[in-house]
Amino acid sequence: PGQLVGKRAFVTAAAQGIGRATALAFAEAGAEVIATDINEARLAGIASERVRTAKLDVLDRAAVLAAAEAAGPVDILFNCAGFVHQGNILEATEEEFTFAFDLNVRSMMRTIQAFLPSMLERRGGVILNVASVASSVKGLPNRAIYGTSKAAVIGLTKSVATDFVRQGVRCNAICPGTVESPSLQDRIAANAEAAGGLEAARAAFVARQAMGRLGRPEEIAALAVYLASDAAEFITGQAVLIDGGISL
Ligand code: NAD
User: Fold this and answer.
1) CA dist., res. 20 & res. 81, Å (int)
2) Tell me, what CATH number does 92's domain have?
3) How far is 202 from 162, CA to CA, in rounded Å?
4) Is this entry keyworded NAD (predicted)?
5) How far is the CA of 121 from the centre of ligand 1 (A)?
6) Burial (0-12, 13-18, 19+ Cβ within 10 Å), 88
7) CA nearest ligand 1 atom 41, residue
């Protein structure tokens, strides 16, 4: 507690899953949080004294710039919005590829372009991009578009870290393994028929994890708090794995 006192954080995709847990953990650690999501109704539930909510579609460049203007300078940018496309490369369409890159990668370009200038002016800031083990770290079945997009997130992270390392800005990627979240429930349901039932589909996701369990959003959030804090001042440009051993 207290690691982020005096800091202001901006979080995308904060209505559920990892984004929600992280917005709440930032506030718990003392930060003032601007929590955004395209789903305004679900986002409303996390508003509190330290958490201000605002609707934001990260596909909309003008809306991102307006949100940054309204937010004012922040110390921490948590880029969490992302979508999992399922399928191998032969099943991928141009449209799906374009959409995945728009939501998973270009969204981060937009928010970083919106918030980085004020971080540079103040000579300080932390950018955290949610990538995945399904990326340049590891190939996973039926994650062709997704893995490609998350590898790009790691590349973006390293280039931002490199270009601004002498100006007080750190940029890291977080690479979770399989984490319990509403969209994971959807993926389990989508695989149920092929797997022979919901339980079997769920068991297949759990089995990938060397630890034999899924991650909890709160576990990813705790790493985000650490990486955002001054205690992690020597860490930049890294793809930090938090994956229950899936990459072993
Ligand atoms: P989730 O997929 O359940 O929720 C995603 C959130 O993103 C929703 O609240 C949704 O409304 C929001 N969103 C969708 N489109 C948006 C847009 N255009 N603008 C703003 N918000 C939008 O949450 P999750 O599973 O915790 O995933 C969050 C991030 O973590 C994603 O980038 C995902 O790829 C990554 N990730 C998840 C897992 C996992 O197993 N759950 C593993 C590795 C990485």
Assistant:
1) 11
2) 3.40.50.720
3) 39
4) yes
5) 30
6) exposed
7) 179
If you measure from the C-alpha of residue 88 to the centroid of ligand 1, how many angstroms do you get, rounded to a whole number?
Answer: 20
Confirm if 9 and 33 have CB atoms less than 8 A apart. Answer: yes
Instruction: Round the average pLDDT of the chain to a whole number and report it.
Output: 97
- 37 and 148: one domain? yes
Do 107 and 33 fall into the same domain? yes
Q: Are residues 196 and 117 in the same domain?
A: no
Q: Is residue 103 part of a domain?
A: yes
- Range 51-77 average pLDDT: 98
In a domain, 248, yes or no: no
Q: Is 93 exposed, middle or buried (0-12, 13-18, 19+ CB in 10 A)?
A: exposed
ipTM value for the complex? 0.99
pLDDT tens digit sequence for 80-109: 999 999 999 999 999 999 999 999 999 999
Q: Which domain holds residue 204?
A: 181-214
> Has residue 65 been placed in a domain?
yes
For residue 186, which atom of ligand 1 is closest to its CA?
Answer: 3
Q: Is 67 in the pocket of ligand 1 (CB under 6 A)?
A: no
196, 225: one domain: no
Q: 2 in a domain, yes or no? A: no
User: Best of 42, 104, 181, 185 to mutate for ligand 1, by most ligand atoms within 8 A of CB?
Assistant: 181
Q: Is the confidence at residue 132, as pLDDT, over 90?
A: yes
Q: Does 37 sit in the ligand 1 pocket, CB within 6 Å? A: yes
pLDDT at 1: 82
Distances (CA, A) of 98 to 53, 101, 112, 148: 28, 5, 20, 12
Task: Report if pTM > 0.90.
Answer: yes
Q: Is the CB of 11 inside a 6 Å radius of any atom of ligand 1?
A: no
**What is the structure's pLDDT at 16?**
98
**In terms of domains, do 111 and 195 share one?**
no
